[in-house]
Amino acid sequence: QVQLVESGGGLVQAGGSLRLSCAASGRTFNSYAIGWFRQAPGKEREFVAVIRWNDGSTYYADSVKGRFTLSRDNAKNTVYLQMNSLKPEDTAVYYCATSSPKWRDILSLRPTGYDYWGQGTQVTVSS
């Protein structure tokens, strides 16, 4: 059974940093990608970043490029999203997800490219 568990969210002042974790299990992830999305109240879920597990290739949304960084720990089956220079507009519930077998290691920017999702972790950035 595939499971994704996010952690690391919280309340931080603008300009601060947080590191989110996504612990993954139940699949051989080196043939897949792990994506991060976020959803603010009243808004659609939006793409944040994605990493290809086997070679570490990444892609970021323009809104977070230069501020957020993805990394992975193969031994722990965990992906990290380091978020620096946070802004109030980064406030949202953050979700990680694993790409579906159809998309495998494609760096998909759409939620439909992913089949298993974590429960989400709240990030709140105060001004």
General shape: globular
Oligomer: single chain
The strand count comes to 11
Structural class: mainly beta
Largest sheet: 7 strands, mixed
Let me know the average pLDDT: 95
Which residue ranges are poorly predicted, with pLDDT under 50 across at least 5 consecutive positions? none
Rg on CA atoms, Å: 13 Å
Helix content bin: under 10%
Tell me what you see in this structure:
- The protein starts with a strand and ends with a strand.
- Strand 5 and strand 6 form a beta hairpin.
- By secondary structure, the chain is mainly beta.
- It has strands at residues 3-7, 10-13, 18-25, 33-39, 46-52, 58-60, 68-73, 78-83, 92-99, 114-117, 121-126.
- The model has no long low-confidence stretch (mean pLDDT 95).
What's this, in brief?
This protein has strands spanning 3-7, 10-13, 18-25, 33-39, 46-52, 58-60, 68-73, 78-83, 92-99, 114-117, 121-126. The chain has 127 residues and is mainly β. A hairpin with a 5-residue loop joins β5 and β6.
Layout of helices and strands:
Elements: E1 3-7, E2 10-13, E3 18-25, E4 33-39, E5 46-52, E6 58-60, E7 68-73, E8 78-83, E9 92-99, E10 114-117, E11 121-126
Parallel strand pairs: 2-11
Antiparallel strand pairs: 1-3, 3-8, 4-5, 4-9, 5-6, 7-8, 9-10, 9-11
Question: Which terms summarize this structure?
Answer:
11 strands; about 130 residues; mainly beta; seven-stranded mixed sheet; about 0% helix; single chain; four-stranded antiparallel sheet
